[in-house]
Design goal:
Chain lengths: 112, 112
């Protein structure tokens, strides 16, 4: 069936460096993509989203890139800080669908 | 601004006991509402979602049920809990499909 997956389950980055978290999706009908950050014991927190009519979207210290040709999504975090340590999830939905399909998550650890 | 409340934060229940988890949203009308379960170190599994009062869609067969008695209230229930019902239960809301879902802080349910 369709799935959303991540290339790496864990990622360690030096404080101050940039982080890139990748996500592959298989549903060719995917139209809406979203990234979440989940800290231990808390619910996922919305970071940034992007629709299929865009290739790139920027927020505060974060950038999401969408490559529809290879069905790949990435989240770039600039100048990582200790507070960025968390599990990051990507999720997708076809156009007009009420539901999100979540990936399994990547644990980002920031090394001081 | 919109807020979402889930309670209790933690719950320990014996096998075979009933369950009622409540989620309420403030600051918005007619939201989409969602119940997810998250196993330790895993992604989010959608259990139920609702696009309106009394409208419930079930995503996976199980001994859980959901109800939406009021516009901004979503309840997850079980008549008899199983050991496999242990997990982290998350409620979320969104304005519509293809919009960010916003999560509560979850209920950690342990079945003994």
């Amino acid at each position: 069936g369709e799935s959303v997956g991540l290339h790496l389950p864990t990622l360690s980055v030096q404080e101050g460096d940039n982080s890139i978290i990748n996500c592959a999706y298989s549903n060719s009908a995917s139209d809406y993509f979203i990234w979440y950050k989940q800290e231990s014991g808390k619910g996922p927190q919305f970071i940034i989203d992007i629709r299929s009519n865009m290739d790139k979207r920027q927020g505060q210290r974060v950038t999401v890139l969408l490559n529809k040709t290879v069905k790949h999504l990435s989240l770039q975090i600039a100048a990582t800080q200790p507070g960025d340590s968390a599990v990051y999830f990507c999720a997708e939905a076809p156009f007009g669908n009420e539901k999100l399909t979540f990936g399994t998550g990547t644990r980002l650890t920031i090394i001081p | 601004s919109q807020t979402i409340h889930q309670w209790p934060a933690t719950l320990v229940q014996p096998v075979g006991s009933p369950l009622s988890l409540e989620c309420t949203v403030e600051g918005t009308s007619n939201p989409n509402l969602y119940w997810y379960r998250q196993a330790a170190g895993r992604g989010l599994q959608l259990l139920f979602y609702s696009v309106g009062i009394g409208q419930i869609s079930s995503e996976v067969p199980q001994n859980l049920s959901a109800s939406r008695p009021q516009d901004r209230q979503f309840i997850l229930s079980s008549k008899k809990l199983l050991l496999s019902d242990s997990g982290f239960y998350l409620c979320a809301w969104s304005l519509a499909g293809n919009q960010p879902q916003h999560f509560g802080d979850g209920t950690r349910l342990s079945i003994l």
